[in-house]
Amino acid sequence: MNKEAFVISQFTSPRIGDDGAVVGEWVYSKDIFAQNVHFKREWMSLAQIAKKSMLVNLSDAIAMNAVPKYALIGVTIPRSYTHAELKELTGAFLATCKAWGVELIGGDTTSGERLTISITIISHTKNPVFRKGMKEGHVLAYTGRIGESLKGLKTLMRGGSLGADSRFMKPVLKAAFFYKAAPYVSAAMDISDGLGKDLSRLCAANNLGARFTCKHTKAQLCSGEEYEMLFSFDPRYERILRRIAEQTKTPLTLFGKAVRGRFRCPCKEHHF
Amino acid sequence: MNKEAFVISQFTSPRIGDDGAVVGEWVYSKDIFAQNVHFKREWMSLAQIAKKSMLVNLSDAIAMNAVPKYALIGVTIPRSYTHAELKELTGAFLATCKAWGVELIGGDTTSGERLTISITIISHTKNPVFRKGMKEGHVLAYTGRIGESLKGLKTLMRGGSLGADSRFMKPVLKAAFFYKAAPYVSAAMDISDGLGKDLSRLCAANNLGARFTCKHTKAQLCSGEEYEMLFSFDPRYERILRRIAEQTKTPLTLFGKAVRGRFRCPCKEHHF
Questions:
Q1: Quick check: A181 and A239 in contact, CB under 8 A?
Q2: Looking at domain B3-124, does it have CATH number 3.50.50.60?
Q3: Which of A232, A246, B151, B232 has the fewest C-beta atoms under 10 angstroms from its C-beta?
Q4: Are B72 and A105 within 8 A, CB to CB?
């Protein structure tokens, strides 16, 4: 067990294990976005970093069928940063909050060697979607196209650069689709660590396995930070979900079925 | 303006500026507790660090007259930490949560050079106490004895060591007193940066100054991380507040009065 998993395994609240913790109609999610773990400084502008750090947190809320309302931001900032750089960071936080109708209600800053952003998103839902809820025979699906984020990461690691709109730089959250789809969804999470890894978690949460019904390349299976929605549904909802996908112009891939057994992720853990 | 203050100044929600942000009956507070900023690793055990990081966050909730209910913990952990060390950390988080009736509902971990703990506390109140609300003529008071934390810090910086119960190692929160006192309190915050600095913030929030009615040493004025309650109240409540202090065995010092003007903190900013 890696150290991250070990620490989380020590915390045993039944509210832990989803993309967010549900308390009444509120959902709380918290993700850290850290220099040299999730990004290198030379890859992205501070505005891009701030925006992506918000989006990866908003993605958790969406995966729970919750509407993000409030944010708290904790930032560890290198002492060398100028006021102009700080303004670029805070400006991007505020712009992203505004674009998503989120009110930034608090936070904390401290100094440190590397830029680290820890965000808490408070979101609202009357009908949360959990990782648990998938049944044998349910269809497995994801939104969008996957694989590009890992390709982008590899380009960056080779010293190349990426366009501002590439997936690694700027996830495109499928909120419009997912909020409409949620009533027909039995279980969901976002794809943050790769379809393979996240599917293994979704399956484990339901004591089920998965059978793929269409071929996927290793790049598609193992590309993390896609921030697409991974979910399952009862086959009788296929038509309505396809219609919602069409209405919201969201690519939708039905790629498998939940079966008895266990699903093992075929990807190596990757860190840079 | 220092960088921390600059970043916070860019965030302009009216909910920002107190020890926590109030949304309905919920209060959200978030504080970062970071190695080489708030502590050095050799000064304290991991259990002490984890416990103090929780207490400084719980202190914010108490200062708002809110009862802590849930916690989210984000930790940046050096790769060198062993499983035994991780267990010491998580064990202390859980024990502190248990002692305060707080449910740990989520979190995130990542690796990094220095141990950094970012905690979000979700607390409940029907009657929040804010920094704003103090009027001219109100009495200024604080709980406990102050000054010891700075003395402890100086001892540590000279290479000395501290007892496990010394203030710097383990703040003693005055929850029992403050929840009873809150109905009679006009404005409050906790003393995290020193009486002088925090009083200047309390005064600024109310466009008032302060006149001291008893002498304080520089050590008392400038000792941060006391986590005592600093508050103001209408003089007609003096008797009842003294009685609550007696009932809860809480030292209470009435040290001044809110007056017209402005209060300037006489302390230097200290970093180590």
A1: no
A2: no
A3: A246
A4: no
Which of A7, A26, A106 shows the shortest C-beta gap to B109?
A7
Q: How far is CA B211 from the centre of its chain?
A: 23
Candidates A91, A110, A120; nearest CB to B120 = A120
Which of A88, A117, A89, A93 minimizes the C-alpha distance to A105?
Answer: A93
Is A271 part of any known ligand binding site? no
The region of weakest confidence among A137-146, B3-12, B155-164 is B3-12
ipTM: 0.89
Residues contacting A236, CB < 8 A, separation 6+: none
Domain boundaries defined on chain B: 3-124, 139-259
Sheet holding B21-23, edge to edge: B21-23, B26-34, B116-124, B67-77, B103-111
Taking contacts as CB-CB distances below 8 angstroms, the residues of chain A near B36 are 112
Residue B270 has pLDDT above 70, yes or no: no
A11 chain-B contacts, CB cut-off 8 A:
73, 90, 93-94, 104, 106-107
CATH class, range A139-259 = alpha beta
